Amino acid sequence: MSDHKSKHPLFLIIAYLAIAGGLSVLLMSLYLLTSTIEKQRWPVTDITPAQSGLFYQVGEKRYVIQKADLRRNHAINKVYYNPDRPEQYLTALPSYWWHLYLCMAGLIVLYAGLHLLRERERNVQSLGFE
Question: How far is CA 80 from CA 55, 56, 94, 104, in A?
Fold first, then answer.
């Protein structure tokens, strides 16, 4: 027979919060990562100047580039556009490294919560707050 001690409710709450937080960060960052990797495949087109401003052309249709996007990257001459919805464009491809870092952080927090949930020989007195 095992003499299984019940855990302090504080440890259970912290473990469940860590598991929930780790899962939510992991799922959110995986969604952002797949979205960013999808944008890496967008085709590129040249920017054409006109009297009314700048535009890019996809097929026979012209799309105007917003001035707010040009202030951030003032030396651009190409844009990346969504092939399904050509009115969506990017002046620079996004980096996926931050999403990978978030995935790893979510995994670490999830593992810490699972470890705390399975830990057996820890009690509140061992923390030294008293």
Answer: 12, 10, 11, 29
Say what angle helices 9-39 and 97-118 make with each other, to 10 degrees.
160
Q: 19-47: per-residue pLDDT in tens?
A: 999 999 999 999 999 999 999 999 999 88
- Measured CA distances, 60 to 26, 29, 57, 63, 115 (Å): 42, 37, 7, 10, 58
Interatomic CA distance for residues 130 and 115, integer angstroms: 24
Is the pTM higher than 0.85? The answer reads no
**Using CA of residue 68, residue 72, residue 78, residue 83, what is the dihedral sign?**
negative
Single-letter code of the amino acid located at 36 = T
Tens of pLDDT, residues 41-95: 999 998 888 777 788 889 888 888 877 666 665 567 888 999 999 988 888 888 8
